[in-house]
Amino acid sequence: MNVVSLNEKDVVIKRVKKRRIDWIIYLMTIPAVILFASFHTFPVLKGIYYSFTNWDGLSQEYSFVGLKNYINLIGDKNVWNSYIFTFKFAITSTIIVNIISLLLAIGLNSKIKFKNFLRAVYFLPNVLSILIIGFIFNYIFSYAVPSIGEKLGIEILKSNILGNPKLAWIGVVIVAVWQACALNTVLYISGLQTVPDELYEAASLDGASKFQEFWHVTFPVIAPFFTINMVLAMKNFLMVFDHVMSLTSGGPGRATESISLLIYRSGFAGGEFAYQSANSVIYFIFIIIISIIQIRFLQKRELDM
Amino acid sequence: MMKKTNWFTTILLLLGSLVILFPLYLTVSIALKNPKELADSVFSLPVGLHFENFSKAIQATNFFSAFKNSAYITIVAVVFTILTNSMVAYVIARNMNKNKFFKFLYYYFISALFVPFPIIMLPIVKQTSALGMNNPTGLAFLYIVYGIAFNIFIYVGYIRSIPTALEEAAIVDGCNTWTAFWKIIFPLMAPINATIAILTCLWAWNDFMLPLIILNDPKHTTLPLAQYVFQSEFGTNYNLAFASYLMALSPMIIVYVFAQKWIINGVTQGAVK
Questions:
Q1: Residue A208: Cβ within 10 Å count
Q2: B256–A111 C-beta distance less than 8 A
Q3: Which of A101, A280, B193, B211 qualifies as a cystine partner to B118, CB 3.0-4.6 A?
């Protein structure tokens, strides 16, 4: 046996081995890919497909109507209404949640007593079902708050905020903020813990005020966490569904009907299966545009600082 | 540098925590009152401790059946998410830099994160009922499949921090990728598996939208769905309703009290990655 043939044999063995390994890595991933494609990607494509038809969701037959659903969406008052509510709600809640969470995180990260207890309490809402929290707040808004209003004689508190078409959305914001601050606060805390102590010492030696210290020392370091929190909060709030279902069912009238709720309700029960599919495609496009703008804009700010 | 305790902040935060605790206090106290006590005062402590609210609520909402369904769905979703998603993520993480196909898979799964659920909602209901998947097992299956998009993202980041030397040694010793993963890498992934388990558990246990659209047999109802369905039956009997809410919330609260450090860490890890 000479050296060359031994080497050749080696190469052959290696090749065989490599091919066998390749076969295994595909076997370990392909089933998941097929399942994901058939239960996620396929329904997405199917939704886009239905959006060009007039199917009501039940009948045997349907036909193609081209862009008719999309054109009708533009003039639909209920659709406009749901987009205005959803965006008004999402933007307001995102801003409030981030302000409160940042303040809470600074507080919880400073030298305080009962630190672990307080952190545990502030994080608790994150593990609770939003739907049930919504039912509890529904009662608080309709009975508990008015009874305080009666006792103290404060006019604004006497009526149920959820029953007022102009103010009901604020009730939804309150519950959303109550629940969402939990997650954003712990994220800001983990951001604050990445700020080196030396920076604070240097700032205090330079005679920086508390506000200057925050703005020039703390904030630049936690900027990535600010980005995560803004994107996360905004994305979750644009999908708002459970809050509205338990607090107002979209009411009074359609005052708090979110996009998800409109698609769910009219799509299943209202015979607008294809029409609401078109609505969901528009919604999808909105989400993509917003995500891209948000990430671009906030990352640019991070670099500027 | 030892700083002294900031009492001002402590007191402010303690007062603030009442905003979180007050609705929960109200839930417990209303659940223990009878309608007359509640009518007298919304806020006072309960006097009589009306535990019969709980037994009535258990009957009205068929609590044990809903609890069993929620527990089954959550456990199946968590166990299989960890076993399957970690494996897929491992192969992607180790091959995405030398094989275009796996690079594509990575971006394919990640891009699904931008798809809002409502676009899937209408077609998936038709699909699951056509396939006979409108039951707890079908629902758990959906959590496992939908979880992939987000979990891949977290897993891949973690796996890439594990040195490849260990598996290479194992492969020289005759292991293939499958055995190398289960024997060597999977045990090393315990911390990140805990994170994924917590996130999946919170999602599957508290989710309302998927059960609402997928499950249509009353005996398959989950805990949040049961609260929604029986809302009309409670009517104005808030004592009964709150007893039911309290029972639906308490399993998670109990788990949280015991595993709070884990849960907070897990959720933070998941979001920061």
A1: 16
A2: no
A3: A280
User: Distance from A21 to chain B by nearest Cα, in Å?
Assistant: 6
**pTM tops 0.90:** no
Return the sign of the alpha-carbon dihedral for residues B100, B101, B107, B111: positive
Subunit contact A112:B5, Cβ cutoff 8 A: yes
What residue numbers bound the domain in which A19 lies?
1-39
Q: Which two tokens stand for residue A232?
A: 């996360």
> What is the per-residue pLDDT across A153-199, written as a single tens digit (0 to 9) for each?
887 788 888 988 888 999 999 999 999 999 899 888 888 888 887 87
- In a 3-state reduction of DSSP, which class is residue A53? strand
Is there a contact between A165 and A255 (Cβ–Cβ < 8 Å)? yes
| Domains, chain B, with CATH or none | 13-50 (no CATH), 63-272 (1.10.3720.10)
Residue from the list B26, B122, B241 with its beta carbon closest to the beta carbon of A267: B122
Q: How many domains does chain A have?
A: 2
Cβ-nearest to A111 among B5, B208, B227: B5
φ/ψ (deg, to 5) at B237: -80, 80
Burial of A32 (0-12, 13-18, 19+ CB in 10 A): buried
Paired residues of A131 in beta bridges: none
Whose CA is closest to B271, among A82, A225, A12?
Answer: A225
* CA dist list (Å): B32 to A53, A252, A293, B144, B251: 54, 31, 50, 38, 18
Q: What is the pLDDT of residues A108-157, one digit of tens each?
A: 988 888 888 998 999 999 999 999 999 999 989 988 888 888 888 887 78
CA distances from B252 to A53, A194, B51 (A): 44, 30, 21
Residue A55 lies in a domain: no
